[in-house]
Specification:
heterodimer, A: alpha/beta, Serine Threonine Protein Phosphatase 5, Tetratricopeptide repeat, Rossmann fold, six-stranded parallel sheet, four-stranded parallel sheet, 20 helices, 10 strands, globular, B: Rossmann fold, 5 strands
């Protein structure tokens, strides 16, 4: 989100320091992330000049970044009312509307911003994001393309275009656009600066190919299937990865050199992100590499967990693994995560035991569950992904929001039902209830944005069937 | 010497504060220096014996002013104050004797009886145990333990001590037999109890307490006519006896003759010197008024009953103690630590426990009666054992820390089997109690508020089913107000503290469930009423036993539940007890803000 630059001066006569100057300092605080300081200065300005639009707007942005969403919206709407149709205000408020799930308001203001500032590609970029979320995919593509006509190097618009194309299954173009993901402002760099080239798929056997297990764990689990394909071209492979992923990646290829810290990276000739391999492989909808299962539970550990579950879950009940929330720092977490309470229709299915594989702060919800089906909070005893895989081996089916456990179960060829937002991540494509990436996956899609009730009711219906 | 009135001790002993309740131990002179007082003490004893109370009192006050620790003088003054009905003074004096002379059996016995009399059972137990330590072969020491443990709802221990009295005294004292009968009645062993009452009454036909107890037994065993005849007999024996009138009111209530019962209690009240009922009578009256729909009057009776009980027993919620324990439990039982602690193994050679958890008055008795109607499940009732384990754990684990921190010893090489030992302690005690039937695979432990120890239970019995009985919190509050119980640090001595403790425990349960993988099933009391079969099936599935229709007819389960719920669980499931709080909305208003988050979390509303 961009902050306004125009200094406000109205009411400056009543304080010794001109308000415009104070505003400038507050805007500086906001830019450098000193939100509390910015917040307090803006309060001061607004106490003196309550209708000063730039200050209202900036104060709204600060409130938004501090998580005070309702207040943010009220202030930004007030700024728009008093500041007339300032395109910047509109461009910013549409992102707040989107975050709060008010997609109609979001698209309306985004379109007005585009109309008022037809030469601002950022307005179009924001519109493209909102259209994606509204599942207006062709419109989203058109908006992103229009933004790129104005500025061919706008990484966000390229990335938005990539997601829309991939979601439609237009993979050839999609993969190319997807390459822009590392250039988005604020995106974590793939790796430390290097003079080595990105791998172009050309085989070599006299040096190391460095692969980077980038993005979330779900992405790593999905794309590590390409490691054997890469190893067939470059037998010496090193993979930079998080420690949690090591036991999984070892299963893909016997001789991988795995490391977790860049200062221990081996010399290499070329590098590639794991998520860049589908492009090199030339993956299309009809040629998705799916060597399922490519991950397996350790049989001894699975036996231990099976033993542990015996007394915990009634013997005659089906064991349904559940995960209701993803990592809260994921930028789409609000959209993709549900709550344990939303699983109520599933908990009402007779002779079902819910086995929670949930980790992280959302685990708290297990303590507040009072549904009919017994809930076994086995997540509290899970130490690592080896445990998770072993447990997945003991469950009849897994019902999960779009998170790494879904990928893991799917990569193991276990039955897994993934619950998706109306506008899902691109990899789940449009409309279909199956996935070319994972044959044992069934997809349950939201029909109304951010409403899980009918999704859960359908899942419960399938469980009863 | 005359102490000015303002300096007199507020306990009413007649001594100055500085020589009584504010006595500084260093102010007590060495015995040699006050030996000249010995003749005065002897004169006091003699005077008291001869009925010259004023002289005796004067002499005692004089002696104690100079030597406040003289047991003889304290003893005489105690007798005098006790006879005058000055409870607080008598208690202060007898306490002082025990404090100065811990091996004084007579004083220890007196103190224990006095504490038992006013319902201070926890402290009474401490002194009764001391009495047994001082005189292990003295029948009266065991008699104390028998009475106190029976009252404290640990009848199996009480039974042991009563039987020791029989052995040691070599006689079959009719009062002792009646006490043992009352104990067995509380264990649901109705036939044995009945035959002891018969024996006792044959030997001593007109003992009030015996007949009263017997009548209560027959009432509990649904022999209403027999109970009525026993009460009739007492009416001729001692007309207008308050105990008889209360028993009759209870009996009439069970026969649904509510108006007569209420009228009887009103007569009882008008008979007393102050025209007022005692705490038990008030709660009984409140429950009867509730039955006839006079809710406002009922709540007034409940509140007054609670107030009187607080005044007499001095039992109030131990807020700081409860808060401290719960905070420590919450801090100790966290996921990261639990992953490093061992668990006890599961024994396959003995029946296994099913823990029926819940706040008192939330339906745990109903669930136990239902489960124990199953041929493979026996009722263990309220087993005090988990609480006992928390007390003995530091010793068993050889730890310098208290519970729960003592569990840290499990990290030591020599304590890896510590939990197995504690588990075996529990199972062995259960076997000793004789509750295990030959074909039983399971026994229930329905000690209320055992959910406070959910973490410990899951370490000791990681495979045991944990059935948590949930009921609308406001209904639980109404029940807590209409019954006396001491569980939960005496929280039910007032509405506000009952609510506070309820919230504390429910928050702690939430914490355990988020931190541990538990074999835990919440069961709603309301579902037992609405959809009994599905709920019973779910419970039996959860335990892993086949459905048995007998569980639906639990009211035909002849087992007597000895807790306050007994009258309800011998009736078919009824709707009256569901959402009863609606009649008391106004009275419950003060605790609704505190309870609301839990009410919502449990999926209830406040209508």
């Amino acid at each position: 989100m961009e902050t306004p630059t125009g200094p406000g001066t109205s009411g400056s006569a009543t304080v010794p320091v001109p308000l415009g100057e104070v505003f400038g300092i507050a805007a500086g605080f906001e830019r450098t992330g000193k939100l509390a300081e910015a917040d307090s200065l803006l309060r001061h300005i607004l106490a003196v000049a309550p209708a000063q639009p730039d200050s209202l707007h900036l104060s709204g942005i600060v409130a938004f970044r501090l998580g005070r969403h309702e207040e943010a919206l009220a202030k930004m709407e007030q700024a728009i009312a008093v500041g007339l149709d300032t395109p910047l205000y509109l461009r910013n408020i549409c992102e707040v509307y989107r975050t709060l799930g008010r997609l109609d308001d979001a698209v309306r203001t985004a379109k007005r911003a585009v109309a008022l500032a037809p030469n601002d590609p950022l307005c179009l970029h924001n519109l493209a994001i909102i259209q994606y979320e509204r599942l207006e995919i062709d419109e989203s593509i058109a908006s992103a393309e229009a933004a790129l006509l104005m500025d061919r190097t706008l990484p966000g618009a390229h990335f938005e275009l990539a997601e829309a194309l991939l979601l439609k299954g237009e993979m050839a173009r999609g993969w190319e656009e997807y390459e822009w993901r590392f250039r988005i402002g604020g995106a974590a760099p793939l790796m430390p600066p290097t003079d080595k080239p990105q791998w172009d798929g050309t085989p070599f056997d006299d040096a190391t190919l460095l692969l980077v297990a980038d993005q979330g764990f779900g992405d790593v689990i999905q794309f590590c299937r390409y490691i054997p394909w890469a190893a067939a071209r470059c037998p010496q492979i090193a993979v930079a990865c998080a420690a949690e992923m090591m036991p999984l990646l070892r299963q893909l290829h016997p001789d991988l050199h795995l490391f977790t810290r860049w200062d221990t990276a081996p010399p290499f000739r070329a590098f590639c992100a794991l998520s860049g391999l589908p492009r090199l492989h030339g993956t299309r909808l009809d040629s998705v590499l799916a060597p399922i299962p490519y991950l397996r539970a350790d049989p001894a550990r699975a036996a231990e967990w099976r033993e542990r579950l015996v007394p915990l879950a009634p013997p005659s009940y089906r064991r349904v693994g559940i995960v209701w929330a993803g990592r809260p720092t994921h930028n789409n977490d609000r959209r993709r995560s549900a709550s344990l309470a939303a699983f109520a229709p599933i908990a009402a299915v007779p002779r079902v035991a819910l086995v929670s594989l949930q980790k992280g702060p959302a685990t708290d919800q297990a303590g507040r569950y009072y549904g009919r089906a017994p809930l076994i909070n086995i997540g509290a005893e899970i130490q690592d992904y080896d445990d998770t895989m072993a447990l997945l081996d003991c469950l009849d089916v897994v019902v999960t929001v779009d998170t790494s456990v879904g990928h893991l179960a799917a990569a193991m060829g276990r039955p897994v039902w993934i619950l998706l937002a109306t506008a899902p991540d691109w990899r789940w494509l449009l409309e279909r209830s199956d996935s070319p990436w994972y044959p044992t996956v069934r997809l349950f899609r939201q029909t109304v944005a951010r409403r899980w009730d009918d999704v859960m009711a359908r899942v419960a219906g399938e469980l009863r069937a | 010497m005359n102490a000015s009135v303002s300096m007199l001790c507020p306990c009413g002993s007649g001594l100055r504060s500085a020589r009584c309740c504010s006595l500084d131990a260093s102010a007590v002179p060495p015995p040699d220096s006050v030996r000249h007082l010995v003749p005065l003490v002897e004169r006091a004893i003699q005077a008291h014996r001869q009925g010259a109370t004023e002289t005796a009192e004067r002499l005692c006050l004089d002696v104690l002013e100079l030597a406040p620790d003289r047991p003889g003088a304290l003893g005489v003054l105690y007798e005098i104050r006790k006879a005058q009905g000055k409870q607080a003074a008598a208690e202060a004096l007898i306490r002082r004797i025990v404090a100065f002379d811990p091996n004084n059996f007579v004083a220890t016995n007196e103190l224990a009886l006095l504490l038992l009399g006013r319902g201070a059972l926890v402290e009474a137990e401490i002194h009764a145990r001391n009495a047994v330590r001082i005189a292990p072969e003295n029948p009266q020491a065991h008699n104390l333990m028998g009475m106190i443990m029976t009252e404290a709802q640990r009848p199996q221990i009480g039974e042991f001590h009563y039987r020791r009295v029989l052995e040691l005294s070599q006689t079959r004292d009719p009062i002792l037999l009646a006490n043992l009968a009352w104990n067995l009645k509380n264990q649901g062993r109705m036939e044995e109890a009945r035959s002891l009452y018969e024996e006792s009454v044959a030997a001593a036909p007109d003992i009030r307490q015996t007949l009263l107890g017997w009548a209560r037994l027959e009432e509990a065993d649904r022999q209403f006519k027999v109970a009525g005849r026993l009460l009739d007999r007492m009416d001729t024996l001692s007309p207008k006896d308050p105990g008889v009138m209360l028993s009759r009111a209870i009996l009439l209530g069970r026969m649904k003759r509510y108006d007569e019962a209420i009228a009887l209690l009103d007569t009882l009240a008008s008979q007393t010197s102050e025209g007022k009922l005692g705490p038990n009578e008030l709660l009984e009256k409140g429950r009867l008024l509730d039955q006839v729909g006079r809710y406002d009057d009922a709540f007034v009776a409940f509140e007054e009953g609670k107030r009187l009980a607080r005044e007499m027993s001095r039992n109030v919620y131990q807020d700081a103690v409860a808060d401290n324990l719960i905070t420590r439990l919450r801090n100790f039982f966290v996921g990261g630590r639990l992953r490093t602690l061992p668990r006890a193994g599961t024994r396959t050679d003995v029946p296994q426990p099913i823990f029926v958890l819940g706040f008192p008055r939330s339906g745990t008795t109903l669930v136990e009666q239902t489960l124990s109607a199953h041929p493979r499940i026996v009722a263990g009732d309220e087993l005090p054992l988990i609480h006992d384990i928390t007390s003995i754990m530091p010793r068993m684990l050889n730890s310098p820390l208290g519970y729960p921190e003592a569990l840290a010893e499990l990290w030591m090489g020599d304590q890896r089997a510590g939990l197995d030992n504690l588990r075996d302690y529990y199972l062995q005690k259960v076997a000793q109690m004789g509750i295990l039937a030959p074909k039983a695979a399971w026994f229930t432990d329905k000690m209320p508020l055992n959910e406070t120890q959910l973490g410990l239970i899951a370490l000791l019995f990681p495979e045991a089913p944990l059935i948590h009985v949930i009921r609308h919190p406001l209904d639980v509050m109404v029940s807590a107000m209409s019954n006396h119980f001491t569980h939960g640090f005496c929280c039910a001595s007032a509405l506000e503290t009952a609510a506070l403790h309820y919230v504390r425990v429910m928050d702690l349960v939430q914490h355990y469930r988020a931190e541990m993988a538990l074999r835990y099933l919440p069961i709603r009391y309301e579902d037992m009423v609405d959809d009994q079969e599905a709920t019973v099936r779910a419970m039996l599935d959860f335990v892993g036993e086949k459905f048995d229709r007998r569980c639906l007819a639990f009211h035909e389960n002849r087992r007597y539940a000895r807790t306050a719920s007994y009258a309800q669980v011998t009736e078919k499931l009824y709707d009256r007890s569901r959402f009863r709080y609606r009649h008391y909305r106004a009275q419950l208003e003060p605790v609704i803000p505190l309870l609301r988050p839990v009410i919502e979390r449990l999926g209830y509303t406040v209508d």
